[in-house]
Amino acid sequence: MSRVIIVDDAAEAVADTPDGAVVLIGGFGSAGQPVELIEGLIESGAKDLTVVSNNAGNGDHGLAALIREGRVRRMICSFPRQSDSWCFDEKYRAGELELELVPQGNLAERIRAAGAGIGAFFTPTGYGTPLAEGKETREIDGRGHVLEYALAGDLALVAAHRADELGNLVYRKTARNFGPIMAAAATTTVVQVDEVVAVGSIDPEHVVTPCVYVDRVVPVTRTLAPTVAAGVAR
Amino acid sequence: MSRVIIVDDAAEAVADTPDGAVVLIGGFGSAGQPVELIEGLIESGAKDLTVVSNNAGNGDHGLAALIREGRVRRMICSFPRQSDSWCFDEKYRAGELELELVPQGNLAERIRAAGAGIGAFFTPTGYGTPLAEGKETREIDGRGHVLEYALAGDLALVAAHRADELGNLVYRKTARNFGPIMAAAATTTVVQVDEVVAVGSIDPEHVVTPCVYVDRVVPVTRTLAPTVAAGVAR
Amino acid sequence: MTTTSSTSALPTGIDRDALARQVAADIPAGSFVNLGIGLPTKVANFLAPDSGVMLHTENGMLGMGPEARAEEVDPDLVNAGKVAVSELPGASYFHHADSFAMMRGGHLDICVLGAYQVSARGDLANWHTGRPDDIPAVGGAMDLAIGARQTFVMMNLLSRDGRAKLVPECTYPLTGLQCVSRVYTDLAVFLIEPEGVVVRDLFGIEYDDLTALVDVPLVDGTGR
Amino acid sequence: MTTTSSTSALPTGIDRDALARQVAADIPAGSFVNLGIGLPTKVANFLAPDSGVMLHTENGMLGMGPEARAEEVDPDLVNAGKVAVSELPGASYFHHADSFAMMRGGHLDICVLGAYQVSARGDLANWHTGRPDDIPAVGGAMDLAIGARQTFVMMNLLSRDGRAKLVPECTYPLTGLQCVSRVYTDLAVFLIEPEGVVVRDLFGIEYDDLTALVDVPLVDGTGR
């Protein structure tokens, strides 16, 4: 009897999200974005959220819709501005949303550190730039480094490809992106998957996220992915 | 044309190791220990080595033999003393070998940091203990942390299960242990494998060590593994 | 530290198997658990097969099974004590940095460790006697001690010379500060709580006799 | 910054494809390379199929292939620009922390980036105009700039208003310090070396005319 719970309804899986929660949301643009879970989060009514995600929403679905509905007080991300980030752009320009901009690798490493029990780390990325202003710096082996702190979530929403009934996960291609590190960095991790398979169906050598990091699994039939536009943004 | 080189002879693969090199050696006890590469290193004649490995050799083969031959000036490890570590014990008690003892998780994380370009990190492990004496400490989120620095190698010797002709690696079971992080943390990484397969034979989702971390691959027929003794040590 | 040898014969409590059974009974179904080498390894023998407890071994595996039978021995599949083990359905393998991230990041519910000493505030000493002729070896002890959500210690309450190993302050080199939450011994189970050290169970000894053995203020929780 | 508009018509050098071909020709066979979004992406079109150059994309892949044809489009397989791409034999996938570890750890031989400005000592500005009405976005630019063993910049030498983007000191917000090793432009290729900024190639412009355009001391390396 593992502790993972398989929930059929995305809204039910995130219904207990409190106002003010820090929510880690996987995905790089649309790839790996847990759209159905985010729609469940909108249904939950939770507001004043801090959202940690690489981007700040694409088009009108998923994270973009959460922002449009005014649920996000603060975005921590590396690349908010994209050709289809109009929901974010509007809220940001209206001053209704704070932005903490973090270089993508520091964002990933801060999330990884939270899951790994590392309090903080010295990274060369960003040294000498405006994004390191006010931060502690140190020269290590002749190179400038910036001190960055772990970034943990109350809730992580992740899209994986397949889960077994214990919650072991595998991903598909570049949709893996932030999923494994976010799953490890949150108090509660909810994962949407294309399918749930029997225990033993995933080779132990191929598991990417061990079940210890997963609290709830929601099988979903993915809605049509937004059109992949050319040359948008990183 | 990838840059990985497939070398048939283990001795040839490590023949250029200079005296005084820092050598990362994979394995946890005998599991994943690159015995044939270490024997090649003994043949190379390199001496005054600093060896980073979880243990300090088992029985009379591999790392134990390297130590017995007097090639190791300094061991950085977490668990030197085992029921079958007589080669190390003798050199250590004779004062012919320095020991830097590092908690196993800090050892792994320091190696990982070297490969990941992280200069140093704050870890709670070891805080308040003799192994943190003289180290910088800091309270983060109410918890004591110790600053630990990245630990890089000139050479890494790793045992994997299978490589493709580009050098992508997969491992077997708990023989994976330090392999992936050591492969990424050294200037030159030499990997012994049970077999080399054609490019495309390893599913890109299953690659554990991407080929960018591998310089030389040596197919070996493993010599008989030492008897697995019960209840030895961590 | 002065010798405080007891005046009477040493009490005898429960044996090692019974102690392992006690610990196993306190591990909730579905927990993720790391069992240290030595005595704690025995706990696995008393976990109900349907408990869904998943065992972590720090050398890179979750879902570890029992020791391998002779014909199953695989040199690539060992536990933290380097003993050949087996793999259960739903297992996963990962490298050492990921394995210790799992531990240090607080993802394991319980680890069970042996000890030389535990202090009244939960400090642990279990890696080094401190004797100058000993070769020190720490392994994953420090990571385990501070990493799991709860650290249980299993040990005999008394050393061979009759001194309690639950002490006001550890005299052996420390493994971790304030990390132990429970101490399972042959004579009693102690809970390290904010109010102090609470005695939860007694095995073949009276409460007053126990307090005479241990130089730490105790709270009687046996009637709770 | 004062306007230093040139008195003559702007020179015309090589076009974007020819520039991409120049960069591609300088990438050694078997290199591991990250091509930034925008202009650098074009370099892939001019890498010889048998060069064995492996492309890294920071969203978690090594061994990226060309843009996906319509029937191949897979929403789970995109590049850093979120464009659908393909997978080559020998590819591998990994998560974001591992992907940036690969970059930051110095494992990529070359990254090619666009730029607003590059300074004479190799400082790079390419992520933010600094205009107050702009929404800042950095993505992986800072990690790439300092992570690869060599950072090549591709850009037009002159901005639309005729000012050189190779400058004594960057006035735009910085991406990284002293990280650029070469600057490929439509008019010249510059090497940022200890001795200074060396002009290696000229495209449709005389050396003296180039020095008049650029407010940075140059070393003529065209005859080397």
Describe the protein's architecture and organization.
The complex is a heterotetramer, with two copies of chain A (234 residues) and two copies of chain C (224 residues). Chain A has 234 residues and is an alpha/beta fold. Chain A has a single domain, classed as Glutaconate Coenzyme A-transferase, CATH 3.40.1080. Chain A is built from six helices and 14 strands. Chain A has helices at 10-13, 35-44, 63-68, 86-93, 104-116, 179-185; strands spanning 5-6, 22-25, 49-52, 72-77, 98-101, 120-123, 137-140, 143-149, 153-159, 162-164, 169-170, 186-193, 195-197, 216-219. In chain A, the strands form three sheets. Chain A has an eight-stranded parallel beta sheet with strand order 1-14-12-9-2-3-4-5, sandwiched between helices. In chain A, strands 6-8-7 form a three-stranded antiparallel beta sheet. In chain A, strands 11-10-13 form a three-stranded mixed beta sheet, with no helix packed on it. In chain A, α5 (104-116) crosses α6. Chain A is globular. Residues 226-234 of chain A have low confidence and may be disordered. Chain C is α/β, with parallel strands linked by helices and 224 residues long. Chain C has one domain (7-220): Glutaconate Coenzyme A-transferase (3-Layer(aba) Sandwich), CATH 3.40.1080. Chain C is built from four helices and 13 strands. Chain C has helices spanning 16-25, 96-104, 141-147, 207-213, and strands at residues 32-35, 54-57, 61-67, 85-93, 110-113, 117-119, 124-125, 150-155, 166-167, 180-185, 188-193, 196-202, 218-220. In chain C, the strands form two sheets. In chain C, strands 4-3-2-1-5-8-10-11-12-13 form a ten-stranded mixed beta sheet, with helices on both faces. In chain C, strands 7-6-9 form a three-stranded mixed beta sheet, with no helix packed on it. Chain C is globular, with a radius of gyration of 18 Å. Chains in contact: A-B, A-C, A-D, B-C, B-D. Chains A and D meet through α4, α5 and α6 of A and α2 and α3 of D. Chains C, D: Keywords: Transferase. Chains C, D: Pfam families: CoA_trans. Chains C, D: It comes from Nocardioides gansuensis. Chains C, D: Belongs to the 3-oxoacid CoA-transferase subunit B family. Chains C, D: One of its GO terms (molecular function) is CoA-transferase activity. Chains A, B: Keywords: Transferase.
